[in-house]
Amino acid sequence: MKIVNLLNRVLKSQGQELTKENEYMWWSPFVNHHKPKLQVNIKNGKWHCWVSGQGGHNLFQLFKKVKATKKQYQELNELSDNFSFEYVPTKQENKEVKLPDEYKPMWTKSNSPTYKHALKYLKSRGVSEDDMIKYSIGYCEDGLYSNRIIIPSYDDEGKLNFFIGRDIFDSKLKYRNSPTPKDIIGFDLFVNWEEPILLVEGALDAITSKVNWIFGKLALVKSQNFKHAVKSKISYDKARKLAFAPHINIGVFSLEKESTIWKVWQGNLIQTLKSGDIFGSEQLAMNISVYIDNVVTEFLPLNCNWITSNLLPKFDEENNTFVEPYLPNNKIGIMHLAAGIWKDNKDMRLNKEIEIDIQTVHGKSVNKSLRFNN
User: Fold this and answer.
1) How far is CA 205 from CA 14, 188, 201, 358, in A?
2) Lowest pLDDT segment from 11-15, 81-85, 223-227
3) Which of 11, 43, 113, 223 has the fewest CB atoms within 10 Å distance of its CB?
4) Torsion of CA 212, 214, 220, 223, to 10 degrees
5) Distance between the two ends of the chain, CA-based, in angstroms?
6) Secondary structure (3-state) at 336
């Protein structure tokens, strides 16, 4: 594989393929250790040295750290089309932002397949023709940004400060953005700072939600409920209400057999399944039932559905049970292994042999599995 061969040359060692897909291990250039300790995901570009603690979110950062040659940078840039990482230059390298030469506006109708696919995609995301004109949305048929819609961002003086290139054909590289810093205010030209501002996940979410948004150095709040609700064609008023409500995880819930809430939930589930993703649809339907339909709800304490990927429990050796890690160390009833617990690239959900270090209530460390043993 070309990317592995390139990394072998840059890191001056032979990468070892791990059992986890797309994961490799190299000898770390940051420490002297008797084992390879630099782990790299060749798909998304994330890398981490397990000894020094150094790491990053794309391979260009790693190449800069190890002082790769200009030729090696060029090779990586050529390979980036096949992967989900991209080059973000430093501020010293930044040039004046300009739209791609191949940019074509969406409001100029065309019979080209790219235009038709771009129009279909934008409409599927709820973007109107007025939105396309207001935000100068375009597309590219050729060049570096081919088969992508282009969403420009302008500062408060109307000067282009950034643009997003969003793929419309499900390539491996979903986004290819302008080679500029992201510490800017997106759509600043349209922001009314006198009104409340809702922070959303992406540019199209901002456009279709009809709310003001900011990103970059300012905090970014992601709302799973909002994103899924918009996909499921839930009205924006309801989606916004869900965005500000605490997300309900339904790993554990109960209803009486004759409860009328079953029908409310089922009705919402039909709606979320029609246009949204199957994964998470039942959870979104329950959030709608609680926050929009206002069904009578009693929220269970965390120890009834302890999500271990958020915070590991402690172990009470005297009572031989897992407990909450903070006082008064209430007993945990149900352990939720959402997102998995990983060790040596093996997931505890799939491998019963996996055990990890768990702190006891008395400050000791024990090696335990979080799975239920009967």
Assistant:
1) 43, 16, 7, 40
2) 81-85
3) 113
4) 20
5) 45
6) strand
Which candidate, 14, 26, 32, 21, places its Cα nearest to that of 59? 26
Phi, psi at 115, each rounded to 5° = -60, -45
Q: Which residues pair with 138 in a beta bridge?
A: 105, 150
**At residue 100, what is the residue type?**
P
State the burial class of residue 239 (Cβ atoms within 10 Å of its Cβ: 0-12, 13-18, 19+): buried
Name the band, by pLDDT with cuts 50, 70 and 90, for residue 48. Answer: confident
| pTM of this structure | 0.44
Flag whether pLDDT at 95 surpasses 70: no
The whole-angstrom separation of Cα 270 and Cα 292 is 16
Nearest to 345 by CA among 48, 58, 55: 48
Name all domains of the chain by residue range, CATH numbers in brackets.
2-87 (3.90.580.10), 103-209 (3.90.980.10), 224-291 (no CATH), 303-368 (no CATH)
